[in-house]
Structure formats: C-alpha cells, structure tokens
Amino acid sequence: xxxxxxxxxxxxxxxxxxxxxxxxxxxxxxxxxxxxxxxxxxxxxxxxxxxxxxxxxxxxxxxxxxxxxxxxxxxxxxxxxxxxxxxxxxxxxxxxxxxxxxxxxxxxxxxxxxxxxxxxxxxxxxxxxxxxxxxxxxxxxx
Amino acid sequence: xxxxxxxxxxxxxxxxxxxxxxxxxxxxxxxxxxxxxxxxxxxxxxxxxxxxxxxxxxxxxxxxxxxxxxxxxxxxxxxxxxxxxxxxxxxxxxxxxxxxxxxxxxxxxxxxxxxxxxxxxxxxxxxxxxxxxxxxxxxxxx
Lengths: 142, 142
Description:
alpha+beta, Pnp Oxidase, Chain A, six-stranded antiparallel beta sheet, homodimer
C-alpha cells in the first residue's frame, strides 16, 4: 500500500471509531498546569481531521481553552478495549450560521433557542496527532 | 455530612470506579506541546490518592514524563457512561523492592524476569485533582 492509501485508511478507521463511540473525554490544561477531562458529545458529522462540539458559553472549559489552546481528546469503548488518542488545537466560536449548519434536532433539549440560542458556543478542534488501539483484552500491555 | 466525610466518600467512590475499570488512558505532554494518551493497566491496590503502573523502561511515555511531570488520567466505562478524570504528578522509579511489593503473578507474562526484570519501570502518580461522572446516557450534556 502506498503511504497515502495507508493514511486514508487510518483516517477512515478513526472516523468510524469516533462516530461509533461519540462521547469524547476532552482534556484541557488548567491555569495551574493540571489536566481536566470531561465527557462531551461529538457532533455527528464524519471526522476528516476536524471535530466539532456544542457547549454552553459559560462553561469553565472555554476559559481553559482560551488560556491554553492545545487540547487532548480520547475515545474509549471499554467493552472491547478500543482506545483513541487525539491531540489538537481548539477554537471557540459563537457563530449562529455555523451552528445552523451543524444543527440536529437532538440538540434542542440542551439549547431551546436553537442555533441562535444565546448560550450556545461551538468548539472546533483541528487534530494534528492521532493514534488508536483496537485489540482483545488479553493482549493489553501494562 | 461534614466536608471530611464527603471527601472520604468521594475517595471511596473514586477507588471503586478505578478498581472496576482498571485500564486508564494516561495522558502526557509531548516535547512539541501536544497530548498523547495510551491505555495502561492500573496496579490493583486500592486507590488512596496515589496510583501505580508497571511499564517497560524503554517506553517513550517515560521520556515525556521526565520532560513534563504533570499527567492526566481518565477512566471510562462506556456501557454505563461512567467517566473519571484525574490530574497528578508522575514519578518514574526503577525499584525492585517496590516492584516486589506490588508484584502480582499476572505481571509475569509481561516481565518474565519478575520484580527484578531489567526492563521493568514503575510509574507512580500522585493525584491532586479528581472528578467523576456517573449517569444514565440521556442526561449527558453536549
């Protein structure tokens, strides 16, 4: 296989895993230099190197990302030992046009005002490093 | 409940979750400032603020931890939406005495030389920030 084909296959596998697992742990760095991770639902569009999340404008993680743009993301499916690690740079957007484009009716419960809800912020992560592991339990190294 | 009791209960809950999930995603910072996470089995002793891991002395994560001592840990059980986030400081030890103390026969497959295997390193993480979420799927915020 050519390197390009391998890369395309790796991105396809990553996109499949992210699409199936959906809930990421998004890791940010605190002002004190510690790490904080929290579960966050990934927007459903297919991964192509960028990821989108909807969140509340007042969420403390936004302040952490404003101070320190680099973020980590992990996706874990514990029942079959599937693990994804991503590293990237986060941007925060308040962009009703983009929110309209990303909108899904399932978001309505969280943002009753729809894509123009004043409490809605978008997080865009551009991924620059990705790794994944898919393996049966017994092969796990310590 | 007094704050101390609440704290003790929270540590007990955390210890239970970590003990059940066992496989952490350990997040380190690369020399370029990116994040790398990888699955790692937690040593079985009960969490009391410290965590132990066995790893190979040549593992690249050790070099990342030597450069940047702060690490993140997450524990995820995806089938019931359980998420744990920990932040701490890592120490790397080559300490056959401690390895002997931690030793479990299940480690033999990875380190045929036992606690004195020349390829065996210990990672100790002292946790200074911990959060967890346990909730049914439908209550998950975006």
